[in-house]
Predict the structure.
Amino acid sequence: MAEKQYRIGIDLGGTNIKVGVIDADNRLLGKLSMKTRPLGRDWHLVVADMAAQVNHLLEELDIAVEECIKIGVGSPGMVDHIAGVVTYAGNFEWEYVPLLAELRCSFPHMPMRLANDANCAVLGEAVAGAAKGARHVVLITLGTGVGGGVIVDGRLQEGGSAGGMELGHTLLKLDGELCTCGRHGCLEAYASASALTRQARAAAEGDKHSAMHALCGGNLGNMNGIIPFKAARQGDQTAQRVVDTYIRYLGEGIINFINIWRPEKVLLGGGVSNEGPPLIDPLNDYVRPRAFGGERGYVAPVVQATLGNDAGLIGAASL
Amino acid sequence: MAEKQYRIGIDLGGTNIKVGVIDADNRLLGKLSMKTRPLGRDWHLVVADMAAQVNHLLEELDIAVEECIKIGVGSPGMVDHIAGVVTYAGNFEWEYVPLLAELRCSFPHMPMRLANDANCAVLGEAVAGAAKGARHVVLITLGTGVGGGVIVDGRLQEGGSAGGMELGHTLLKLDGELCTCGRHGCLEAYASASALTRQARAAAEGDKHSAMHALCGGNLGNMNGIIPFKAARQGDQTAQRVVDTYIRYLGEGIINFINIWRPEKVLLGGGVSNEGPPLIDPLNDYVRPRAFGGERGYVAPVVQATLGNDAGLIGAASL
């Protein structure tokens, strides 16, 4: 009988379904990607695509399914990790989709796990990326929304039931900006890439001389999370204020998580994190003196995640 | 040789040093209490008092120290649970007090643990109180400050280093009220008994007809966290607004913790929690529809802790 040594990860995203296989050393041996779209199609078809992609990749890698220990799936939205059900994924218009039960039809007897995608990402970074070797880690992903993943004493934290570790849906400001979740003032409403884009657009509207106009090609509808950083580097004061304010929002959220978990590291992932040092350095300067206990306690450095899009795949395979 | 079956808990507070002994069924067999004061005296003397109290209680209960498995100590302030050191306790003017090392001089070879007092309280409630049998629990203590304790999958959460699980020092409102920790807008600055007292006093100052004046004996310096609830029950609208606003502050904090941990129960302890249903019922009504995922997710009921002052003692003995 073949020795079981490989693990399969599936990263379900709004744009792509990615599958990958990792070995016992958490090395990604190969991966495949296909479009998830059209969004809103029958979930059975999406799961059938996942299964087909897995079989395709195993064939390419010349690995038999019997050599695989398990399959892990990362999904966006609210996930019931215990039941293996996607409770709710707005992008897909999914409610209570029994994803693992369906996938098991294609891979009978295979151990399977399901988790939220940001939870997978922190696990990936912990086994093979920026947090390798750390036992206490917080990851914040800055994309369309703000996702969160936490590892405590080497164990992925998922909450006692569906919808836990929603770090983006903790409060930054009572009665503040309306969040996609319906609550006012969530961190996500201030620190996501979408929020940054909105903040930059509003600032540019108030300053017709801002370099952001040219960087948008004269149309503020082209604003994104990169432009204010770029304009700030060109010396644009309005853009610099946008960046400074954004760093403050994100920093205050990070201080909350340090006061809770006292991790060894705080990782930043997602699109905005690609700004690197112009984001990370002032963020550390903001966070360090403001965490509870000040200089008496250890304050985790904020660092950039390193695995990029592979984090979710490697993490899913490591569930 | 005597069978080891008893555990010793020490609850160090600003007012009292309490010691207790529990049996294998987490029953409190006996306890003693003495004044901690004067605050600011040499910490060696405080630890000597703890040791003397333990010996005194064991003698009273006719239990030999050899029959005890371990000693657990709950301390206010910032605690390094790994090193057994009180990093900082403002009340006592303590910094880096090696409490366990000192206590070990009196009880050589005895296994010992140190934790923050709110962490002990949640553990006590989980082994013998309102959260008995639950594996995922959040406790919030509403006293002079706001303390927090969390149990995940049956394990006490303490953070990766000193100063974790400071739920009172997570943000309610960016740029809000100044907190004792130096940060602006912490939950503690809105939801502690001291904050409630301040809110009630300000409201009474603005309404000379409020029933709160009489309940303070005409002197708003006598305001406390009980009076607004009492006045609201008498039909005083100003007091009712104070209560409603306080419930909203506390509710928003609780929603944050549900969105993170998805516990089975949220417990309220500390002075303010003694209000019972007039606090707890509207709090549940506020929290239930506002947690992330709304009706799709399980939302923990908020309930009153049941062990009162014994929670910390039983929890310390259970560390």
